[in-house]
Design goal:
The structure holds 2 protein chains of 2 kinds. Chain A is globular and about 60 Å long. Chain A is α+β, with helices and mostly antiparallel strands. In chain A, the strands form 3 sheets. Chain A has a 5-stranded mixed sheet. Chain A is 53% helix and 17% strand. The longest helix of chain A has 35 residues. In chain B, a hairpin with a 5-residue loop joins β7 and β8. The relative contact order of chain B is 0.17. By secondary structure, chain B is α+β, with helices and mostly antiparallel strands. In chain B, strands 1, 2, 3, 4, 5, 6, 7, 8 and 9 form a 9-stranded antiparallel sheet that branches. Classes of the chains: A alpha+beta, B alpha+beta. At the A-B interface, α13 and α14 of A face loops of B.
Chain lengths: 378, 421
């Protein structure tokens, strides 16, 4: 089994593909050995990928951030389906990423400042990976989304801890800055979080939605302490509990597998969240940081659709194309409201701007509501 | 047979069913001409296809849901495709069917229903859907020719002048497209507007909409004259479906009047007119009657006996003053005082809740069709805005002007086809 891989590495490109194909019996393709990691040098303006071809199988990237901004590295398949990602690579640090890639064309991307489309490059994987059957594609959708959840929960936990630490240290400015950032990772995977009915309201319950007699806890309680009371001296226990609850939900989320139908519905529900809670400013009623959540919901929805992309491409390519267009249009509309590393506050937006955002979400939500039935087709 | 029509038939009884079936059949084979016949019954379907759009001389239904849209796409093809989808759904819904073939409950369980469902079990209820194109579809506020249509913009769509005393709210005025949905059941009208808005997501966005209850005009001689919220009969002297010569002269756009695509169409003016009913209600009967120029009970012109008696503006009372005062509404609006200019009015009463000052937010949603608004509505309204004693009790708060194209001929035709050709 080692020989063809070594050959593949030695020959690279077309010859490698031939070598693998000749080998035949190895469906998973070869795997780049430790010695053949692909070096990625990320700066604020460049994303140098050491090699832009690899053999099918597990591909390992080593990403070194030589820039001044925190960066991310992605490998995308068609339709911006995230095959794998490493987030939060701080300047001066190197991180490793392992990703299972079948033969095909991909894109790599560094995202200095962790926003936008990033600096893209083509990436080609050669080999004889057999096309997946329909069932296998559906199973792959579940796995692909599970990888996404894993990547998000890791950062959610880390950022929630930073947030909680800042609250407990009484550093209100830092806590305010971290509040929408930590929530981003939460809002991206809300369809998973919502499966755990008890924990979701403890972490993300809004004051207006509380049953009489229940305690107000979680992100929004601390939000109120930070923005309304301007005093977090008593917030320590709530902060500790938030971190413990987030840890619980992270563990649960990573043991949960969402069915393709759940993914499709989750993609729609995230946009419903935008339409009913974020556009109205009800989500972050004290901090007005709703656009962070808006963006995160949109990204989470896109990730769920992207996981289903191979199935959609087979069964309803026109719908897949429509979704690409409408996602791009919604992102472009939202991008008008970028401010620094973040977003304008909800209460800074005019009625006409909010309506334009609502229109873009409506335009996307109608086609997204059709995905579930496509996935459910026999 | 689809659910809505089947249920409608079942509910209409044997004779009603036969009549309804015949009408629905006509609607589907596209053979209908002018929609002027005294309708079969309030539940029946009004033919969608025809030489003119339905919903103009159609016997006026009891309820309105009017909606204006902004076009939010820049793609002409997307707009045309939506108009095709709308036409398909409109032909179905006006025949008492669901918006899409799979309907409210016939699709896969994982998919959202094609039809929103609130009109299941209801008959067609005389539903008409009438489309109009606003000036901003041709050129936006900055003069941009948005869809390559500017050369086809009719001169008659030029902006209405500002009238004395009006304070218009731009948020409930204008629009690139408008749909007038009229039906004898308000739920049927709302259902139609809601499904069209849904089909238009991403292409159009609802700019404003208005519910109306209670017609304030009659469009056929067979219909009684209804009352507006001042308690007076309104629309006695309206253009009527039976007045073929007048309709040709005053309502429909003839060849040579403007762009070819508007031939057989008409121009629609909408005005939301708030009525200050509380102050009106404490005005004496004689004062109310002299403001209107008609008796409140019968609706006769002052000095005459019957509602349909022609007003005699020369009759003087014992005091030597005209029985119908010089600033009475009827005098100022009457065609004999406006160079023979007539309108086909199709307005509805509205009450949008209350205004927080203890007053009903009530009034008249005025709709008028005509061959050329600048020769018809504008001079009449200029006269009314300057002189009408009723102005003390009314406020014009919104305005709209739309080119209503000719009818959809058959299933292979669609709204706007000749405009976008």
């Amino acid at each position: 089994m080692r020989t063809p891989r070594i050959l593949a590495i030695g020959a690279a490109g077309a010859l490698a593909a031939a070598g693998l194909a000749a080998c035949g019996d190895d469906d998973s393709g070869g795997s780049d050995k430790a010695g053949s990691k692909i070096e990625v040098t990320a700066t604020d303006t460049e994303c140098k990928v050491g090699r832009t071809e690899a053999a099918a199988g597990t591909v390992t990237f080593t990403i070194a951030n030589k820039g001044s901004k925190v960066t991310e590295f992605y490998v995308y398949a068609a339709g911006d389906r995230v095959m794998s990602e490493v987030e939060n690579i701080v300047p001066g640090v190197s991180r490793e990423m392992h990703v299972e890639l079948a033969a095909g064309t991909y894109e790599t991307a560094c995202k200095p400042g962790m926003s936008g489309r990033g600096i893209r490059g083509a990436f080609k994987v050669t080999g004889d990976a057999k096309p997946l059957t329909e069932d296998a594609k559906l199973a792959a959708a579940t796995e692909s989304y599970q990888r996404y959840v894993k990547s998000q929960t890791e950062v959610l936990l880390a950022k929630t801890k930073e947030f909680v630490d800042a609250v407990k240290a009484g550093d209100r400015e830092k806590a305010k800055a971290l509040y929408p950032v930590a929530r981003t990772y939460w809002e991206r995977i809300e369809p998973v979080a919502e499966i755990f009915g008890d924990l979701d309201p403890l972490i993300d319950g809004r004051e207006a939605d509380l049953e009489p007699g229940t305690e107000f806890t979680g992100f929004h309680k601390i939000e109120k302490d930070l923005w309304v009371a301007g005093d977090v001296s008593q917030s320590g226990p709530i902060a500790d509990r938030l971190l413990a609850d987030v840890q619980k939900i992270v563990d649960l989320a990573n043991s949960e597998k969402l069915s393709p139908l759940q993914l499709a519905n989750g993609a729609k529900e995230l946009l419903d969240e935008v339409a009913s809670g974020k556009i109205t400013g009800e989500e972050d009623i004290f901090s007005h940081t709703d656009l962070w959540d808006f963006r995160a919901n949109l990204e989470g929805s896109k990730a769920a659709v992207a996981a289903l992309r191979p199935v959609l491409d087979d069964r309803d390519p026109a719908l897949a194309k429509t979704l690409d267009d409408k996602f791009a249009a919604a992102e472009a509309t939202l991008d008008k409201h970028r401010k620094g590393d973040g977003w304008r506050l909800h209460n800074e937006l005019s009625g006409a701007e909010l309506k334009e955002l609502a229109d873009s979400i409506n335009a996307l939500s109608e086609p997204i509501s059709k995905v579930a039935a496509v996935v459910a087709q026999k | 047979m689809d659910r809505r029509k089947a249920l409608g038939l079942a509910g209409a009884g044997a004779l009603g069913a036969a009549a309804l079936g015949a009408v629905a059949g006509r609607a589907l084979d596209g053979s209908a001409g002018e929609h002027a016949a005294a309708g079969p019954g309030p539940a029946a379907a009004v033919p969608f296809y025809g030489a003119n759009q339905a919903g103009i001389v159609t016997p006026m239904q009891d309820h309105l849901h009017f909606v204006a849209f902004d076009v939010i796409t820049s793609k002409r093809e997307a707009l045309v495709e939506m108009l095709q989808n709308w036409t398909y759904a409109a032909a179905r819904m006006t025949a008492g069917q669901e918006a899409g073939a799979l309907g409210a409950v016939g699709g896969p369980p994982e998919a959202p229903p094609e039809d929103t469902g609130e009109a299941l079990d209801l008959p067609a209820a005389g539903l008409t859907l009438t489309i109009g194109f606003g000036p901003t579809l041709f050129r936006d506020a900055s003069g941009q020719d948005r869809f390559g249509l500017a050369a086809k913009a009719p001169a008659a769509l030029a902006a209405l002048p500002k009238f004395p005393g009006e304070t218009l709210d731009p948020g409930i005025s204008g629009g690139d497209l408008a749909v007038q949905a009229c039906a004898n059941d308000p739920q049927v009208a709302v259902h139609a507007v809601r499904n069209l808005a849904r089909l238009g997501m991403g292409v159009v966005s609802v700019r404003w909409s208005q519910l109306g209850f209670g017609r304030t005009s009659s469009t056929t001689q067979a219909q009684d004259t209804p009352r507006n919220l001042f308690g007076f009969k309104d629309g006695t002297a309206n253009l009527k479906a039976e007045q073929h010569d007048l309709l040709r002269e005053q309502l429909w756009v003839p060849a040579g009047d403007g762009p070819e695509w508007m031939v057989g169409g008409s121009y629609m003016v909408t005005r939301k007119i708030r009525m200050l009913v509380e102050t009106w209600d404490r005005t004496s009967l004689s004062e109310q009657e002299s403001i209107v120029g008609r008796s409140k009970g019968v609706g006769a012109p002052l000095g005459r006996n019957g509602e349909h008696d022609e007003p005699d503006f020369a009759i003087k009372g014992d005091d030597g003053e005209p029985m119908i005062p010089v600033d009475a509404h009827v005098r100022l609006a009457h065609h004999t005082q406006n160079n023979g200019v007539r309108l086909l009015r199709r307005g509805y009463n509205f009450v949008d809740g209350s205004d927080g000052l203890g007053r009903l937010n009530a009034g008249l949603f005025f709709i008028a069709y005509q061959r050329d608004p600048h020769r018809q509505f504008v001079p009449v309204q200029q006269q009314l805005a300057r002189l009408d004693r009723m102005n003390e009790y009314i406020r014009h708060v919104s305005s709209g002007l739309f080119a209503v194209p000719t009818g959809v001929s058959a299933a292979d035709d669609h709204w706007g086809r000749s405009l976008f050709a």
